[in-house]
Every structure is written in structure tokens, then in C-alpha cells.
Specification:
The chain has 402 residues and is mostly helical. Helix content is 57%, strand content 1%. It has one domain: Ribonucleotide Reductase, subunit A (Orthogonal Bundle). Strand 1 and strand 2 form a beta hairpin.
Length: 402
């Protein structure tokens, strides 16, 4: 999947005890958490490029144990039961509920997007000075737009397959019947999302990309960890939360009607998925020790960094034949504080992590990390349990969502 060798070992083991057997918080360094000392090391970030295995498969050792429960009382967890009931009425069919006969002209759509958002056509000359991109004209920028769109939708598709695997794992491992019921509906949702993005890429776009290296490393870690709450944290809170914000951003800027409808349908599902994660973890995390909370903070930090790093779209630069020294040069000239898309991606996860108590646990370690990343400002936005889509009656089709 990537050009970095990685083992599929569980991330457990960050806790320790002193000589008296008292639990201690083991402070791991940034390098131990994400594999590099400098969180903003652009050379290290850009050097990881996604690769597809020649076999066509990528295998990750899953260390979880399936758990039966003999308590079949439905509705004991009232909010999860409510979410499950909403999910049952909110199903839609990717094959029959979308107008697949809608013609899509990718070049024309991008030109319309450029007309509406001219800043997307090329970058500031000062950023490109001395690089090969300084010589690009409209033809090259249009091709870059096409490749970027193919890449973005490919990452959506791969991420949805990761969610499919993780939610199936939650059905196996979570101890409550209400959570198993809801997770089963999400498995169906995720299969539908993989189907819809795959079909759109195959029929309406002009090619697909392998999974981004940083996304692949994160999904490997989520799947390999044996603890069910880490699956929730990594997938439901982090990956799904960032995806929901990304879908919303693309829905706003896209001029292509079929894609807008696909994104709106998927967003309605994703709102329930993230709320499911917050509702399932809130009570559990209020009971964890400082050492256990620190592990979850570190996992959330790793996920945040890897999801941010995947936005560099290394695979597009490689396919466009841009020298890596030029890519690094341009990246170093960027001002992260002005990257609205990158920052807005965190607008979903920061309030949810605050709701779970992870921002301020362990003397505010995660708060400090997010402050350094420039995303702490989102903490007071609404969390996903307040999202109107999460508890909406009926499917997007029934509600006339477009």
C-alpha cells in the first residue's frame, strides 16, 4: 500500500506501572507516535506515496476477539436505539435512487468550477517561482484539476472500504446489543458508499488512484488494534468526522449535479455514523484512568496528523511528473493558516473530542497539540450528537435531499 515498511502490530502497551504496581502514564514522543520527530517535516510527509500491491489485495492482521452478549434487551441504551431506528428508515439504494443517466463532462465541470472559484485555476506566481509549475498554462492546470478530482474521489472510496471493515469489526467486538444493531446498519451504509464512489469513478471520471500512503498507515493501525473503543475512536470519530467535513466542502463547491446528490446522500449517512461514535464512547471515556485516556489522546493525535498529511496528494504530483524538489519547495511556501479546506476538516472532530473529554485529559496534552496545529478554535462548535441529519426521519430520498 505504501513505500514504507510497517508492521501490523497492535498499538497497545503505552501504559506502565511503578515499583508499587501503581499505573503510570507512559509519555511517548512525537516520533514514537507518528514515526518522525517533526510533525511538519515536509520531506518525510511527501516521500510516502501510495502503491497498490501486485496481488490486488492488502492484508492487515486483525487482533480482535469476537464477543457474544447474552443480554438481548433492546433499547437499554436509549440514544443508540433511537439512532438504530432512524438508520433503518434512512436506507437508500445506490443503483436505483440516483440518476446515473446524468451526463458528466469532467473537463466542462472543472471549467465551470474554475469560473465560480477562479482561485482554483493555478496558484500564486510567487509560490511557483523557480519550479517547473511556473511554466504551466491552462492545459496543465486543467489536467491537474482532473487528476486531483480523480485522486480525491479515489481516497473517498478507499476510506469507505476502510469504514466497511471497521464497522464489521465493531459488530463483532462491541459488548452491547444496541451498538451491534446500529453497527450492522452502518455496514450496509458503508458497502453502499463504496459502491457509489466506485461506480462514479468508473463511469463518470477518467481513472482512479491507489490509497494515499498516510491514509493507509492510519487504517492499518485502526484495524490492527484489538480494543473495540480504538476502532470507534479511529474510524467513527476521526476518519468519518474528517470525511463528513470533506464531503460538505466538496458539496458546496461542486457544479456537477450527480456528484452533489451523491455527496448529500452520503453526508446524511455519515452524520449518523459520527454520532454513533460519540454516543458509544462518551460514558466509557468518563470512566478511564489517566493512562488509558493518554493512549486515546495519542491515537487521536496520530489520526489527525495522518489525515492532514494525506491532503498533500503525493500521488497526483508523481503522476503529473513534477520533480519532488519542486513539490517540497511549493509546500514550504504555503501558509497553512490560509488553507481553508485543511482547517475546516477539523471542524467536526475537535468538538467531538471535547465532548469525549479527550482535549483536556492528561493536563490538556491533546489541546496543546491541536493548538500547535491551528485547529483548537473549532472546539466550541456543535458536536455530532447535535447534527440534525443524524436523527432525521426517513431516507434522503424520502426527504427530497439534493
Amino acid at each position: 500500500m505504501t513505500n514504507e515498511t510497517k508492521t501490523n502490530e497492535t498499538t497497545e502497551g503505552a501504559m506502565g506501572t511503578d515499583a508499587n504496581g501503581t499505573e503510570q502514564v507512559v509519555m511517548r514522543s512525537t516520533e514514537e507516535i507518528i514515526g518522525r520527530a517533526d510533525v511538519n517535516d515536509l520531506t518525510a510527509i511527501l516521500s510516502l506515496v501510495g502503491r497498490e500491491e501486485p496481488s490486488g489485495y492488502h492484508r492487515v492482521k486483525d487482533n480482535c476477539e469476537a464477543e457474544f452478549t447474552w443480554n438481548y434487551e433492546k433499547g437499554r441504551l436509549e440514544k443508540l436505539d433511537k439512532l438504530y431506528e432512524k438508520a433503518k428508515t434512512a436506507q437508500w439504494n445506490a443503483r436505483t435512487d440516483l440518476p446515473w443517466d446524468t451526463p458528466v463532462d469532467q473537463e466542462a465541470t472543472l471549467m465551470a468550477n474554475f469560473a465560480t472559484n477562479p482561485e482554483q485555476m493555478g496558484w500564486d506566481e510567487a509560490m511557483l517561482e523557480g519550479t517547473s509549475l511556473a511554466k504551466w498554462g491552462p492545459k496543465e492546470w486543467l489536467q491537474f484539476g482532473i487528476e486531483s478530482q480523480n485522486w480525491t474521489l479515489s481516497q473517498f472510496m478507499h476510506g469507505e472500504q476502510g469504514a466497511l471493515l471497521c464497522t464489521a469489526k465493531i459488530v463483532e467486538t462491541v459488548p452491547w446489543i444496541d451498538a451491534k444493531y446500529y453497527a450492522a446498519t452502518q455496514v450496509v451504509d458503508e458497502a453502499r458508499h463504496v459502491e457509489v464512489f466506485s461506480r462514479y469513478l468508473d463511469e463518470k471520471m477518467s481513472g482512479h488512484y491507489p490509497m494515499n500512503a498516510h491514509l493507509g498507515l492510519l487504517l492499518d493501525d485502526i484495524i490492527a488494534d484489538s480494543r473495540w473503543d480504538m476502532t470507534y475512536l479511529g474510524m467513527q470519530i476521526m476518519v468519518e468526522g474528517l470525511a463528513l467535513a470533506a464531503f460538505g466542502f466538496m458539496h458546496q463547491i461542486s457544479e456537477e449535479p450527480l456528484l452533489k446528490q451523491i455527496l448529500r446522500y452520503v453526508m446524511a449517512d455519515e452524520a449518523r455514523h459520527v454520532a454513533f461514535g460519540v454516543l458509544s464512547l462518551q460514558e466509557l471515556y468518563s470512566q478511564l484512568s489517566a493512562a488509558e485516556l493518554r493512549e486515546r489522546q495519542e491515537f487521536a493525535f496520530e489520526a489527525a496528523v495522518r489525515m492532514r498529511d494525506r491532503l498533500r496528494s503525493q500521488e497526483v504530483w508523481e503522476r503529473m511528473g513534477v520533480p519532488w524538489e519542486d513539490v517540497v519547495t511549493i509546500a514550504r511556501r504555503e501558509d497553512p493558516s490560509k488553507d481553508d479546506f485543511q482547517i475546516l476538516l477539523f471542524s467536526r472532530i475537535v468538538p467531538n473530542l471535547r465532548k469525549l473529554g479527550l482535549l483536556d485529559a492528561a493536563d490538556g496534552w491533546l489541546r496543546q497539540k491541536f493548538t500547535q496545529m491551528g485547529v483548537i478554535e473549532f472546539e466550541n462548535l456543535s458536536d455530532s450528537t447535535e447534527d440534525q441529519d443524524a436523527f432525521a426521519d426517513g431516507s434522503p430520498v424520502a426527504r427530497g435531499v439534493a
